[in-house]
């Protein structure tokens, strides 16, 4: 019965937080079916209207439509990414083609397209606000880009391609999650984990206990190729076992092998691009991003690859020199890089980053670092609402309020890794803000920090501190965007702009007032020593040859796969050989510096939203580095600066061209020099 399904009634919880305690897996598919039907009826009411299109009779009801579907979707996909039990995974597989078909039924609707196209042709004659005008422009552009202008036969072909692709990307993610869990490395002897901190060993023991392997230790894999433990494990064999397991994901044969899945994804994406009039999927994607074309992306990546590879070679030589001085020297390999990098860092900067973890206790980093910086900049406060349950016991709910006490929304933090959570870190919305709908945002940050045994503190690595600040930058974007129309809510901006606010938020990690607040020893409360802080700042560009090279290599792989035309993509491509040729083409084929993601576990592009768009991080970093320079030149951590950034960039959501918003904030276009200097590429 409809009234027995909690997804089909408005939530009684604050801000519309779904009552996850009442939602069972069997509620989801019936709720989606009802939501599909409701939105189809809502769209039908628009397209059956006999009156000529106006903003009020076309755009407003379009933006009002699909509220139930949006609510159900965000509720479900939050769970399917963060707590994907086998039952939830099965639902997601069944749902994928249904969701694709429904989206196509709207985006390819000829009558709806005609009404929006008519409004677009009359834009200069309509009395519209800036947001309303931009809504017409974007809706027309997006429907055109989706194929709404195709004939009916082509639309049928396109719909079939989209449905098959939706199934394949879901399969890719499911295979990767299973293989990541299957390949977690089991250690029988504690000596094999020599070099790890007490908290890391505790987390490995807890992971083993959770799998019924008491008395052993399990190291779970991260989404990217490397692993934080590689920098401290003294056993070369242990390091190799972890890296080999990571790189094997999705390519071992058997039911979790992703090679055929990704080949079909690439082929179908190329076919779809050709159907839509583009030479490649990369051309199709970038045509509606700030980059504009794959050529612009390739130019930037090649420009950065040469100095990055050169710097990585210099770093490698320094590491090899240390290895050569040992009693039994050997040729440095990929699993050795992080370990010997820390030795060089210690020698050059007298800095052991692994020893810093006691100063990065998770709760203090969150409250006295991440939240404190946001309070200083924007005046917002955070109060935990322990009585509000989320979708998992580890997920914590905080209410966010402005300095005047007015409500902003809810922030949910889900910090710890588990077998049902996909890898990596991300932000998503459960409720998006809209004046039209009268809704306020609920945003989620997910990380994958190993959970220590009960009673032990969670001590973060510096990389995990960075990730926490980064993802919270996305959260602020989702919380602060204040728009009328849901289409522009939160982080609904161009893909190659969306990483910009999150990268900017990383700047506060080392800001003196913020660092001094959160970087306190977990036992003594003593601040991080000043000389260590200075060494951290001095070493910011250290190992950037490696970091930039591994990232650029992954970005280039993404572009290489998605720059194939339909004919090329139809070939039976050997995945490993294709990767090797692509990396050689850009000069990033150093075996000691593996790509951050190999194709078979490259979730960003084969199951996420970054296909032909992984370049976005470095593209956005041009804006980020230029913005950091602006903050430093204008007084740094002040309410005036925070309010300007909030009002002119974060607050506009997707309701304005992002580069126009940036110029409004900065007073000019971004310059690349600050990025080159940050990454040690200026020379």
Query: Per CATH, what is the topology of the largest domain?
Result: Neurolysin, domain 3
Number of domains: 4
Q: Work out the number of β strands.
A: 7
Specify the structural class: mainly alpha
Helical fraction? 40-55%
Report on the biggest sheet.
Answer: 5 strands, mixed
Distance between the termini: 68 Å
Instruction: Report the top-level CATH class of the largest domain.
Output: Mainly Alpha
Percentage beta strand: 5-15%
Order of strands across the biggest sheet? 3-4-5-7-6
Task: Return the CATH architecture of the largest domain.
Answer: Orthogonal Bundle
Number of helices: 26
Let me know the average pLDDT: 96
- The Cα radius of gyration reads 25 Å
Report what the structure shows:
- The chain has 683 residues and is mainly alpha-helical.
- The chain has four domains: 2-148, Neurolysin, domain 3, CATH 1.10.1370; 183-248, no CATH class; 259-351 and 542-614, Orthogonal Bundle (Neurolysin, domain 3), CATH 1.10.1370; 358-538, Neurolysin, domain 3.
- The protein is built from 26 helices and seven strands.
- The chain has helices spanning 28-47, 55-64, 67-82, 86-107, 110-121, 130-146, 152-182, 198-210, 236-248, 259-275, 281-286, 294-324, 334-349, 362-378, 462-480, 499-505, 512-518, 530-538, 544-562, 566-569, 575-586, 603-606, 616-633, 639-648, 658-666, 673-678; strands spanning 185-187, 217-219, 381-384, 396-401, 407-416, 426-431, 442-449.
- The strands form two sheets. The chain has a five-stranded mixed sheet.
- A hairpin with a 5-residue loop joins strand 4 and strand 5.
- It is globular, with a radius of gyration of 25 Å.
- The relative contact order is 0.11.
- The model has no long low-confidence stretch (mean pLDDT 96).
């Amino acid at each position: 019965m409809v009234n027995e399904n909690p997804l089909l009634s408005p939530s009684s919880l604050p801000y519309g937080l779904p009552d996850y305690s009442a939602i069972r897996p069997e509620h989801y598919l019936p709720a989606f079916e009802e939501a599909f039907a409701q939105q189809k009826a809502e769209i039908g009411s628009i397209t059956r209207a006999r009156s000529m299109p106006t903003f009020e009779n076309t755009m407003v009801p379009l933006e009002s439509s699909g509220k139930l579907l949006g609510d159900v979707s965000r509720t479900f996909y939050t769970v399917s990414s963060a707590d994907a039990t086998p039952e939830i995974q099965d639902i997601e597989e069944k749902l994928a083609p249904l969701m694709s078909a429904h989206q196509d039924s709207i985006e390819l609707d000829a009558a709806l397209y005609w009404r929006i196209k008519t409004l677009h042709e009359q834009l200069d004659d309509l009395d519209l606000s800036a947001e309303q005008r931009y809504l017409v422009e974007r809706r027309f552009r997006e429907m055109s880009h989706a194929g709404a202008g195709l004939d009916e036969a082509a639309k049928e072909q396109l719909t079939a391609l989209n449905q098959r692709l939706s199934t394949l990307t879901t399969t890719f993610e499911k295979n990767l999650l299973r293989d990541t869990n299957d390949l977690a490395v089991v250690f029988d002897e504690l000596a094999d984990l020599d070099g790890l901190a007490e908290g890391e060993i505790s987390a490995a023991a807890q992971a083993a206990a959770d799998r019924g392997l008491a008395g052993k230790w399990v190291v779970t894999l991260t989404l990217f190729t490397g692993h934080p433990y590689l920098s401290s494990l003294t056993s070369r064999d242990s390091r190799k076992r972890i890296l080999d397991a990571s790189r094997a994901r999705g390519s071992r044969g058997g039911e979790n092998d992703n090679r055929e899945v990704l080949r079909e994804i690439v082929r179908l994406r190329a076919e779809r691009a050709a159907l839509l009039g583009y030479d490649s999927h990369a051309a199709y994607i970038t045509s509606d991003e700030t980059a504009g074309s794959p050529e612009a992306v390739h130019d930037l990546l090649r420009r950065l690859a040469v100095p990055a590879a050169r710097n990585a070679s210099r770093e490698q030589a320094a590491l090899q020199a240390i290895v050569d001085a040992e009693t039994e020297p050997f040729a440095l390999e990929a699993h050795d890089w992080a370990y010997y990098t820390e030795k060089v860092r210690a020698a050059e900067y007298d800095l052991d980053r692994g020893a810093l973890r006691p100063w990065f206790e998770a709760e203090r980093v969150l409250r006295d670092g991440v939240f404190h910086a946001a309070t200083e900049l924007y005046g917002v406060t955070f109060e935990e609402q322990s009585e509000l349950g989320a979708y998992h016991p580890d997920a914590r709910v905080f209410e966010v309020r402005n300095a005047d006490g007015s409500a902003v929304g809810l922030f949910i933090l889900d910090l710890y890794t588990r077998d049902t959570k996909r890898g990596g870190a991300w932000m998503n919305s459960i409720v998006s803000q809209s004046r039209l709908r009268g809704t306020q945002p609920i945003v989620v940050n997910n990380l994958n920090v190993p959970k220590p045994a009960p009673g032990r503190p969670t001590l973060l690595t510096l990389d995990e501190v960075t990730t926490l600040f980064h993802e919270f930058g996305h959260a602020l974007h989702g919380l602060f965007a204040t728009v009328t129309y849901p289409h522009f809510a939160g982080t609904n901006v161009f893909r190659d702009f969306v990483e910009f606010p999150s990268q900017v938020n990383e700047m506060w990690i080392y800001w003196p007032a913020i660092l001094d607040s959160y970087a306190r020893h977990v036992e003594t409360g003593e601040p991080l020593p000043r000389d260590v802080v200075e060494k951290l700042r001095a070493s910011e560009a250290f190992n950037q040859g490696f970091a930039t090279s591994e990232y650029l290599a992954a970005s280039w792989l993404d572009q290489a796969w998605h720059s194939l035309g339909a004919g090329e993509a139809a070939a039976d491509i050997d995945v490993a050989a294709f990767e090797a040729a692509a990396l050689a083409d850009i000069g990033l084929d150093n075996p000691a510096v593996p790509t951050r993601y190999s194709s078979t576990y490259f979730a960003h592009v084969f199951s996420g939203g970054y296909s032909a768009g992984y370049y976005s991080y470095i593209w956005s970093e041009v804006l980020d580095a230029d913005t950091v320079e602006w903050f430093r030149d204008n007084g740094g951590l002040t309410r005036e600066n925070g309010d300007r950034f909030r009002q002119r960039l974060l607050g506009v959501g997707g309701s304005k061209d992002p580069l126009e918003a940036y110029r409004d904030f900065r007073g000019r276009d971004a310059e690349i020099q600050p990025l080159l200097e940050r990454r040690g590429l200026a020379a």
